[in-house]
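Your task:
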Amino acid sequence: MTAQFGPSALATPANLLTVARLVLTVPLLAMIVDTGATWPTVTLWTVLCITDGIDGNLARRHGTTRSGAFLDPLADKVLVLGGMVALVANDTFWVVPVAVIAVRELGIQAFRSYWGQKGLAVPATVLAKAKTVLQEVAVGFALLPLTATDATWVATSLLWVAVALTVVTGAQYIAAGSRFATNLGNR
């Protein structure tokens, strides 16, 4: 039988995995800045990206929590934006697409917090989840020794597609919030 955790639980298997992801992101970012595209770096990157799906499955199986709803997106943002910024720092990625992604991610996080305080849950859409995966894959190809030097266009192309999805999903969230605000005003 699977243990169920209430919404206020803190020490859940999913939250423990999420905290481990956050902690392991710090040495990963140092590895990206120090050594760039290496097999150990891309391996740790891949493991941390895969564990995002695992902690989501654990949360669904054991019960979602408010702390998990906060920690999981935080871990995603720290990992993905941290990886992109580290790649900017070592001149692998250009700052402009990373800045567009960072502004959208931080803006939508503020948007979700604002609407959350007003009672609107703003769950991630399928397209937004695909956007996150594409961002992870773009960073992964930038860290993969096979493509990092001779096929940089792969990571760069994926990054720009991720930018497009980032902008589209940001607009979708804003439209959803506008509809909610309109519905509130009509009550």
